[in-house]
Structure formats: structure tokens, C-alpha cells
Specification:
The structure is a single chain. The protein is of the alpha+beta class. It has 3 domains: 113 residues, Butyryl-Coa Dehydrogenase, subunit A, domain 1 (Orthogonal Bundle), CATH 1.10.540; 109 residues, Butyryl-CoA Dehydrogenase, subunit A, domain 2; 152 residues, Up-down Bundle (Butyryl-CoA Dehydrogenase, subunit A, domain 3). It contains 12 helices and 10 strands. Helix 1 runs antiparallel to helix 2 and helix 7 packs antiparallel against helix 8. The protein is globular. The two termini are 31 Å apart. Bound molecules: flavin-adenine dinucleotide (FAD). The site of flavin-adenine dinucleotide has 21 residues, from strand 1, strand 3 and helix 12.
Length: 397
């Protein structure tokens, strides 16, 4: 049976134009802003350029100004956008906005779509997703969710503390996960709320200093302090928040893999260029066996990562849960991308560690990916449990 993994012509064209745009427009801007998080003016400049090039928000439906790409189409385009750290921001496909748009498209009411999705898709506002809490609250185990929402006259009152909330500072709204029934440790009982950032009950407590710098708006600790929201702030159904989180997290895991695979490609290209130029021990670096092995291992990691992303994306496009395939792909990609960037830096020697080329920065940016969207250990644990369950069920037949 022939298997054709190539994207359809319109998607291939979009991916090719994205690749050109990223190299010709985004990378020069990125190089000018080497060490810092870009300003709001830079975000707008890049997004205007992407809009002008017809590349903006490719994942959202045409009625919201996008190209309506499915997950496999996203795989091709997002990998090209990810070649530059600021590429995803330029196309309005950076985390957490991209994942939030995906979820709003699927579960928001028509009124919520007009109020939140439309300006988000247009790049007029940003957003954040507030789930993780300081210990002993929700982290790898979301059931530990401690933030609570109680019914009050006309709506809900949210109380709790969140941290590592990417993009919270400057966001127009937050999607906040709070417990509406049960107690910490229970399987269900969570609800998602749309909270406007000017709500006096939602407070940015501090910016958390982290290894990475590029995810726009940084990572904040956020306090929901008697935060009153109206009844129509509920996103989806009450007590169904954990189920909706999976609607967001499976695809969001994959789009993170797609974007960071772009950085792995970029790191590999820098290393291969260096291996072709640098002379030592009477030959080019690239003629030495151990360097060839590193280059080959990186190529294998990149190809395998792409294959796993496509497999999981295909399942998601079929409407399947993709729980196992996204966990496998996320775990492999987060580790493989790290290995590729690390090997590339090694091939470049001291130049790799220097600020003259971006490999040190790439390394800092990709390291947290082994923790967010589920740490590798949480995914391995879940993968193994599913395999064991499958065997137990098969043995019982
Ligand atoms: C840069 C960055 C951005 C983030 N952005 C957001 C955001 O926008 N919104 C949001 O809600 N959250 C965000 N997070 C939080 C992220 O989702 C959590 O860090 C993640 O879910 C892990 O939770 P935790 O940090 O509390 O680690 P813990 O739950 O304390 O886990 C600690 C460690 O325990 C180990 N572990 C976990 N499960 C198992 C297991 N089953 N078996 C064995 N060992 C295990 C792993 O090594 C793990 O790293 C972000 C995190 C980072 C680093």
C-alpha cells in the first residue's frame, strides 16, 4: 500500500511561503533583538508583515481570517514557522494563544467566539491559560486542582493561586480552570472560566524568572482573589473542565512539537554549515566520524519526530482522542529536539556556547519543553498504564 505523507499542494505552498517569510523577514528582526523578549511594537510589526504576506493565523477557520488548516496541515506550516524563535509569534500561532483559539473554536458559544476568539485570531489581543498551581495544587496531576469557584448571585466567585501562566501579563483574558465540585484529588469537578484581564479580582503577582525568554509575555504568578465573573463566563459545561482540557492539550502538545522541530532544523543547519567550514586535524570537521555520527543521529531524531507528529496529527484529524499517540510523540519530540540542539552546540565548540550564534539560546528555550505540556515522566507513566491495561484486557478475553 502506497503511503503519501506529503501535504496537499495548497498546504505545501503555504509551508514554502512561510519558510521564505521566516528567513527573509522574521530572522533579521530576531537577530536585531538577540537577547530580549520582543516588545509589543515588534509583535505588531511582525504580525502586520505576516498578514500582508497572507500567512496569518493559518490554523483558524476562514471566517476568523485563517486558512482552516487541520493538524496535518499545521504540521507542515508550523515546522517552517518554528525555524525562527519569533516565527510563531509573527503568524499568531504561538503558545498559548494558538491552543486557546483551537479550544474556543471547538467549545465556545457564538457570543464567546465574537468576544474572545475573533480579536484573538486577529492578533488584536493576547490570552493565557491558567491551570497550574504552586504545590500542593495542580501540576503534572491536574486532579490536585485547588482553585475554587463558588456560585454567587448572577455568576461565580473564583479564588486561588496559579503560576507559570504564560503570557498572563498583557493578556486580554485568561481561561482559568477552577474546581466547581468535589475536592482536590477527585477525577472530575473542574470548570473553565473566561476571565477578562481588567477584572479587579485577577492580579498578576509577579513575573517568574525562567531559563527561556521567548514565549511572549513571560510566565507569571496570578492570584484570583474574590474574582467575580458572570454566568456566561463559563466555557463549555460546568464540571467538564478536565474533559475540555484534553481537547486543548492533545493538539497543543503536537503544535508545540511542530514549532520546536523548526528550531531543531535550524540548529542542525548551523552545525552542518560549521562542520563543512571548520578545519582541524588535517580535515574538515564534517569528515570526522564522530561528528558524522552526531549529524546522522540528529537527522534520525528529526525524521522520527516528524513521523510521530504526523501519525498523531492524522489521528486527531480523524476525530480520535490521540491520547497515546500524542503522549508518545510529545515525549519523543521534547527529548529529541533537546538532543539535536545539544549535539549542534557540541559540533560548534566554544562558538556554540557563545552569544555569536543562537544555539545557547535555543538550548535554553527548548529545555522547559520536557516539563510543560506534561513532563516526560508523566507521559511515560500514562503510556505504560495504557499498554498494561490493553494487555490485561486482551488476556481476560
Ligand atoms: C516554561 C513553562 C511554561 C508554562 N506555561 C503554563 C501555562 O501557560 N499555563 C499553565 O497552566 N501551566 C503552565 N506551565 C506549567 C506546566 O504545565 C507544569 O510545569 C507541568 O504540568 C508540571 O507540573 P509541575 O511543574 O507542578 O511539576 P510537578 O507536578 O511537581 O512534577 C515534578 C516532576 O515530577 C516528575 N513526575 C511527574 N509525574 C510523574 C510520574 N507519573 N511518575 C514519576 N515522576 C513523575 C517529573 O519529573 C516532573 O517534572 C508552564 C511550565 C513551564 C516550565
Amino acid at each position: 500500500m502506497a503511503i503519501d505523507l506529503s501535504p496537499e499542494p495548497a498546504v505545501a505552498d503555504l509551508a514554502e511561503r512561510t519558510a521564505r517569510f521566516v528567513r527573509e523577514v522574521v530572522l533579521p528582526v530576531e537577530q536585531r533583538h538577540a537577547a530580549a523578549t520582543p516588545s509589543e511594537a515588534v509583535r505588531r510589526e511582525l504580525q502586520d508583515a505576516a498578514r500582508g504576506a497572507g500567512l496569518f493565523a493559518p490554523h483558524v477557520a476562514p471566517e476568523y481570517g485563517g486558512h482552516g488548516l487541520g493538524m496535518r496541515g499545521r504540521a507542515a506550516v508550523f515546522e517552517e514557522a518554528g525555524y525562527a524563535l519569533l516565527g510563531p509569534l509573527a503568524l499568531n500561532i504561538a503558545a498559548p494563544d494558538e491552543g486557546n483559539m483551537h479550544m474556543l473554536e471547538l467549545i465556545a458559544t457564538p457570543a464567546q467566539k465574537e468576544r474572545y476568539l475573533r480579536p484573538l485570531a486577529a492578533g488584536e489581543i493576547r490570552s493565557c491559560f491558567a491551570m497550574t498551581e504552586p504545590a500542593p495544587g495542580a501540576g503534572s496531576d491536574p486532579r490536585a486542582l485547588a482553585t475554587r469557584a463558588e456560585r454567587v448571585d448572577g455568576g461565580w466567585r473564583i479564588n486561588g493561586r496559579k503560576w507559570f501562566i504564560t503570557g498572563a501579563d498583557g493578556a486580554g483574558f485568561a481561561i482559568c480552570m477552577a474546581r466547581t465540585s468535589g475536592a482536590a484529588g477527585d477525577e472530575g469537578g473542574a470548570t473553565m472560566f473566561l476571565v477578562d484581564a481588567d477584572n479587579p479580582g485577577m492580579k498578576i503577582v509577579r513575573h517568574i524568572e525562567t531559563l527561556d525568554e521567548t514565549l511572549y509575555g513571560g510566565h507569571a504568578e496570578v492570584l484570583f482573589d474574590n474574582c467575580d465573573v458572570p454566568a456566561d463566563a463559563v466555557l463549555g459545561e460546568v464540571d467538564e473542565g478536565f474533559r475540555y482540557a484534553q481537547v486543548r492539550l492533545g493538539p497543543a502538545r503536537m503544535t508545540h512539537c511542530m514549532r520546536w522541530l523548526g528550531i531543531a532544523n535550524h540548529a542542525r543547519d548551523i552545525a552542518v554549515r560549521r562542520a563543512g567550514e571548520r578545519e582541524l586535524f588535517g580535515s574538515r570537521l564534517g569528515e570526522l566520524g564522530m561528528v558524522q555520527q552526531m549529524i546522522a543521529d540528529s537527522e534520525i531524531d528529526i525524521a522520527a519526530a516528524r513521523g510521530l507528529i504526523l501519525q498523531a496529527s492524522w489521528e486527531l484529524d480523524q476525530g480520535r482522542s490521540g491520547a497515546q499517540s500524542t503522549a508518545i510523540a510529545k515525549t519523543f519530540c521534547a527529548e529529541a529536539i533537546w538532543r539535536v540542539v545539544d549535539r549542534s552546540l557540541q559540533i560548534c565548540g566554544s562558538l556554540g556556547v557563545s552569544g555569536d550564534i543562537p544555539l545557547g539560546r535555543f538550548l535554553r528555550e527548548v529545555r522547559p519543553f520536557r516539563i510543560y505540556d506534561g513532563p516526560s515522566e508523566t507521559h511515560r507513566w500514562a503510556i505504560a498504564r495504557r499498554v498494561l491495561r490493553r494487555h490485561t484486557t486482551a488476556a481476560a478475553r
